[in-house]
Amino acid sequence: MAALAESFHQTHERVHAVRDEGSPVEFVNWKGRISIRPFSPPRAPDPTSATQAPKPDETRSCFFGDDRVETPVYRGDNLTTGDSIEGPAIIQEATTTIVVYPDMSARLSAAGDYILDCC
Amino acid sequence: MSEQESTLDPVLISVMANRLDGIVREMTNTLLRSARSAVISSARDFSCCLVTGDDQLLAPAEGLPVHIFGCHIQTANMRKYHGDDIKKGDAYLDNDPYGGNTHPADHTFMVPVFFEGEHLFTAVSKCHMADIGNSIPSSYFVMAKDVYEEGALVFPGVCIQRDYENVEDIMRMCRARIRVPDQWYGDYLAGLGSARIAERRLEDFCEKYGKETVKAFFKEWFDYSERRMVDNIKRLPKANLVNKGRSDPLIGVLPDGLELTVKVDIDPDEAEIHIDLSDNPPSVDVGLNTSLGAATSAVVGAVFNALDKDLPRNEGAFRRLKFTYAEDSVVAAPKFPHSCSVATTNVSERLVNITQSAFAQLGDGMGLSEGGAGLGAGMAVISGNDASRGGEPYVNRLMLSTNGGPASPEADGWVNYAIPVIAGLMYRDSVEVDELKHPIRVESLGIVTDSSGAGRRRGAPAQQIEYGPTDAPMTAVISCDGQHTPPRGVVGGLPGTPGESWKIEDGAQSERLPNVIQLRLEPGQRVRGRDSAGGGYGDPLDRELERVTVDVLEGWETREKAYEVYGVVFTGEIEDETLEPDEAATEARRAEIRAARTA
Q1: Do A16 and B34 touch (CB under 8 A)?
Q2: Smallest Cα–Cα separation from B266: which of B307, B222, B296?
Q3: Mutation target vs B (from A8, A10, A15, A18; most B CBs, 10 A cutoff)
């Protein structure tokens, strides 16, 4: 701790030309620098792989334009690679909600991306 | 002035001049980053500059206009008092208003900078301290009968460091008398550090260019600055301008305020401007007396406002300004022991206004209107005990609301102008930071519609603030000079509205307060302060329709004022976005107003 406080005083003296050893030193922000091994790269999407239609977790009544449609809702956690979903549908992820409009489809790629296509 | 050939490359001169400005900015950064009181670290009530070893002002960069002139007198006094005893590693403190300083609240830290054994520069940091040990908890004391009642500790060029170590006697003196001494000590370190940073950089500067080049630069730079000033003054008309103004009354002391006079004699033949400040009342038995440094700075700043915007402000340019002072006067010639406690504001603010608006007598296109003046409630010095910090005392000068700036021939007034002597260079406090630092709550802060002085270019509007203590009584010292004589317009422009302060109880205005007051507020009570607005420039009937339309749409002025004062008639409504100026009706309305004026 003494070395840490001393290095604060030294930096203060370098930047501002004075030191005040009588006052407590408070660290408001810490900045860190870390080095890590990169993750292994994600698998490339395989356009030839088979697709399958998953089961919706629930359905909900939603408006698309003026039409009220009973819409399937999928939880992202329950989807697997190759799942293909025809719109209208809703995919709920932990941090976002994806609306698959009528005349669109969504497919979960091997890399974990949702690929949305217009039919 | 030297007419001989330059010995230095003009590009090198420019590089060196800018390097020095860069050093002053680094000094400024040090103070902003490391000072402890909000008045310095948030509001930027300080200035840094470099003076040559032989006491010529060299580089003020963006110092406050009222702080600039006089630093060279302070460094000269330092040399007069200490002579050959001045050494590398020394630092000096000066706040003597009778020795070149502005007012006692401005603690000026001076570090002599040596190179190869020669005193080549003095680095100067001038900081408005939150407290200076006055008899009341405010660094501004308007009613102080004399320096004894004011009670400031005064340090005439006192040595505060030797061999880079504090002179502990002086530290103990300050700690024994200044309120919240740790806050003062932090601000002292920041001011000293700022000058020490300059010392390091100037040593590098001398190392890089060599002593002879640095000395040649001083001469060349001052001569160049003087030539620029000569050129500028030669382009002005020959004129003898006399302008008067009046400060606010002080209850029981100065029932009519003070009539102030500035005479500006422009002599293009000799390329000189002569400023005569001698026709002013003698020293008064209150803290309003202006020091030589403050009053001269105020007037010099206003003269520069009327000249080219990029003139170097230094000793070379100052050679073309001549001054006449009285022997005993509230303006620039206080007689001991009269107090100069508020030398940098009240009377000095009026001097700026009187001088810059005097230039408008030269005709449309010259000079400025008067700017909003007065340290209103939003700029009060507050103090008390902070219950949330175990009853710890606090004292600080607020900088939360500001007066509206003056209009120029080309531009509307600057909203965050503050007061004429600092002309927008200070920063506003953050409401949230002030509320964190002190037990206060700001209820509201806003711009006052319709307050601007109307004109072809309008003054900036007034601002209004309401605040009070949260959980323990608070003292607010308000030293306002802008509530009775409002800022005037020029060349047909109208005056801005004056300021007001009110005590608020149970959410309602209970009492209009005098402009100068030491106010005690209990929790639940608040003060409401309205600042003054800048005067207008030129006839409001000449203001372009587009500008008046924007004023009304954005809420600077109401539709009613647009009709009554600017003569602009609108069709449609703001609410449904159909508001449009009616050109024909406006022309008729403006003709009607013009006809009524001559009737």
Answers
A1: yes
A2: B307
A3: A18
Query: Residue B115: its pLDDT value, please?
Result: 97
Q: Report CB contact under 8 Å: A16, B182.
A: no
User: What's the number of CA atoms in the CB half-sphere (13 Å) around residue B337?
Assistant: 10
Among candidates A16, A20, A22 on the partner chain, residue whose Cβ is nearest the Cβ of B33: A16
Residue type, B5: E
CA dihedral sign of residues B294, B297, B303, B304: negative
| Cα distance between residue B568 and residue B555, in whole Å | 15
Better-predicted residue by pLDDT, B338 or B138? B338
Peptide bond into A47 cis (omega under 30): no
Cβ contact, residue pair B30, A12, below 8 Å:
no
A19: closest chain B residue by CA: B189
A29 Cβ under 8 Å from any chain B Cβ? no
Q: Which residues of B109-134 are buried (b: 16+ CB within 10 A; e: fewer)?
A: bbbbbbbeeebbbbbbbbbbbbbbbb
Closest residue to B192, CB basis, from A18, A22, A23: A18
Considering only CA atoms, which of B97, B19, B108 is closest in space to residue B58?
B19
| pTM > 0.95 | no
Each residue's pLDDT tens digit, B182-228: 999 999 999 999 999 999 999 999 999 999 999 999 999 999 999 99
What is the pLDDT averaged over residues B278-295? 97
Kindly indicate whether the ipTM for this predicted assembly is greater than 0.85, answering yes or no.
no
Mutate to test the interface with B, among A20, A25, A26, A28 (most CBs of B within 10 A): A20
- Please provide residue B100's backbone torsions phi and psi, each rounded to the nearest 5 degrees: 100, -20
* CA pair distance B140, B428, nearest whole angstrom: 19
Amino acid letter for position A67: D
Q: What is the mean pLDDT of residues B380-386?
A: 95
CA-based torsion, B136, B141, B142, B148: positive or negative: positive
